[in-house]
TrEMBL record:
SUPFAM superfamilies registered for this protein in UniProt: Acyl-CoA dehydrogenase C-terminal domain-like, Acyl-CoA dehydrogenase NM domain-like
Domain Acyl-CoA dehydrogenase/oxidase C-terminal: 235-376
Cofactor needs: FAD
Keyword terms of this UniProt record: FAD, Flavoprotein, Oxidoreductase
Protein name: Acyl-CoA dehydrogenase
Xref: InterPro entries: ACX4-like, Acyl-CoA_DH_CS, Acyl-CoA_Oxase/DH_mid-dom, Acyl-CoA_Oxase/DH_mid-dom_sf, AcylCo_DH-like_C, AcylCo_DH/oxidase_C, AcylCoA_DH/ox_N, AcylCoA_DH/ox_N_sf
Lineage: superkingdom: Bacteria
Ranges where the Acyl-CoA oxidase/dehydrogenase middle domain occurs: 124-217
GO biological process per UniProt: fatty acid beta-oxidation
MF-aspect GO terms: acyl-CoA dehydrogenase activity; flavin adenine dinucleotide binding
Lineage summary: Bacteria, Bacillati, Actinomycetota, Actinomycetes, Streptosporangiales
Transcription found in the keyword field: no
One Pfam family per UniProt: Acyl-CoA_dh_N
Acyl-CoA dehydrogenase/oxidase N-terminal domain location: 16-119
Native source organism of the sequence: Herbidospora galbida
Length: 383
């Protein structure tokens, strides 16, 4: 780990795990970093890098016996350089592959996961809707109607990452028969399925988010996730991925901290580097404190996950806390850079903008607070 890991949490990784992290770091530094600002400005995804990235063999590590600590640090390294790339990876491996791995039948896992792990096939996860975000559990409007061995899907989804180019889209819809939420793997190109890129974003511009419309989309019964019979099953996926978003937040703020630190050593005012001024050191230490506290939390979260005692409130607290600390930290980094912090040239502006999206997705701070609050008080404050 670099300057951001003051307490050397990365030393908890073993030798083989550290080699994997080093390969990811090298790829992100040598291949993604040089083009990240340009891709972000043009709101285009660097598809040409996917085959090379696939050779690192990190997609689906969690489903091949890897420790959660390793998968967490993989996520951190990506977001330390480019939160857009980290989000692309999280959608593909955490949400899409995670849905198949945890809720698919053995036949479905064998059918879809190997090619997704090789990244020959890319996944997306379609839950959020135009009229519903935080209330999606009760307010899901996309419907599924069974007709023999076929399901007919109708509805709309919004903010679906990777959806403009994904080969498989996991679509969540309410069964008209029993009123329960079920999951379906929809192939790209299915008649009636349309994904339209969302334009004019100010965060994660490289991520290809889309509005999806489903008009009488036919899905075979064999593409219904066998283990998804209610929203409780959907929630098991979100429990895992919220922890991943906490790791994303740590990576984002480490990236911002390292850039602010480097800038403070190079930028001179009043005849000396601004790193020599007390107020700048104060901001750097605040950033490092947020990084260190959050990194300690997600490391412990990974240990709980590997010990099999991982609960909703664990991931919800980590997501709420780490993303809030991230939002503070990148703001302090921008403050250190003053006006230079709002342009891409100095490596801070993209982190400031992207942090806003990470702060919001996978459950807002308020919703995650209510999950933790219910756990600690025994009282539900959900409306």
């Amino acid at each position: 780990m670099t300057n951001g890991d003051l307490y050397a949490y990365a030393d908890l990784l073993d030798g083989d795990e550290k080699q994997i992290i080093e390969r990811v770091r090298e790829f992100m530094t040598d291949r993604v970093a040089p083009i990240a600002d340009d891709q972000w400005t043009r709101a285009e995804f660097p598809h040409q890098l996917v085959p090379e990235f696939a050779k690192l063999d990190v997609a689906g590590l969690a489903f091949r016996g890897a420790r959660s600590l390793l998968t967490g640090f993989v996520v951190l390294e990506m977001n330390r350089v480019d939160p857009s790339w980290g989000t692309f990876f999280g959608v593909h491996t955490g949400l899409a592959m995670g849905s198949v791995a945890r809720l698919g039948s053995e036949e479905q896992r064998e059918r879809w996961l190997p090619r997704m792990a090789q990244m020959d096939k890319i996944g997306a996860f379609a839950l959020t809707e135009p009229t519903g975000g935080s209330d999606v559990a009760a307010g899901l409007r996309t419907t599924a109607r069974r007709e023999g061995d076929t399901w007919v899907l109708n509805g709309a989804k919004r903010w679906i990452g990777n959806a403009t180019f994904a080969d498989y889209v996991v679509v969540w819809a309410k069964d008209e028969g029993d009123g329960q939420v079920k999951g379906f793997v929809v192939d790209r190109g299915s008649p009636g399925f349309t994904a339209t890129k969302i334009e004019n974003k100010i965060a994660l511009r490289t991520v290809q988010n889309a509005d999806i419309t489903l008009e009488n989309v036919l899905v075979p019964e064999e593409n219904r996730l066998a283990g998804a019979s209610s929203f409780k099953d959907t929630a098991t996926i979100l429990r895992q991925t919220r922890g991943g978003v906490a790791w994303q937040a740590v990576g984002c703020m480490i990236g911002a901290y390292e850039r602010a630190l480097a800038y403070s050593k190079e930028r001179e005012q009043f005849g000396r580097p601004i790193a020599a001024f007390q107020l700048v050191q104060d901001l750097l230490v605040r950033m490092l404190g947020n990084v260190t506290a959050s990194l300690g939390m997600v490391v412990r979260l990974a240990q709980l996950q590997d010990d099999g005692v991982y609960r909703d409130e664990h991931s919800a607290l980590a997501k709420a806390f780490c993303t809030a600390r991230m939002r503070e930290a990148v703001g302090w980094g921008r403050e250190i850079m003053a006006g230079n912090g709002i342009v891409l040239d100095y490596g801070m502006g993209r982190f400031v903008a992207d942090s806003e999206a990470i702060y919001s997705y996978e459950g807002t701070r308020e919703i995650n607070t209510l999950i933790v609050g219910r756990a600690v008080t025994g009282e539900s404050a959900f409306v």
